[in-house]
Amino acid sequence: MHKVSEQRIQAAQKHALQSLEHGKSVEEVGKRLQNDSQIEPEVVQSIEASGKTIQENAQEFVEKSQELASDASTEVFVETVQAHINANQSHIAAVKEFQK
How far is CA 9 from the centre of its chain? Predict the structure, then answer.
């Protein structure tokens, strides 16, 4: 059975925490845009909701990366990567919404 290196585990944990911070930042942007009359309220709500979704996906990423520290199997690594992908896709969706 293959094991994931300590370096990859640490990188996953670092990226997971960064993803969580990105989610918080996106949510904060949504909150700040509430005072901008040039932006539709639905867009503001969507950005804020996207930030929360990013955080939820990033939290799963954090949990999987922590699990990876105790079970460095390739199976858990694949689950960790999928959680990372989910967080990134949520972030991309938020950026697209902001660019409208």
Answer: 17
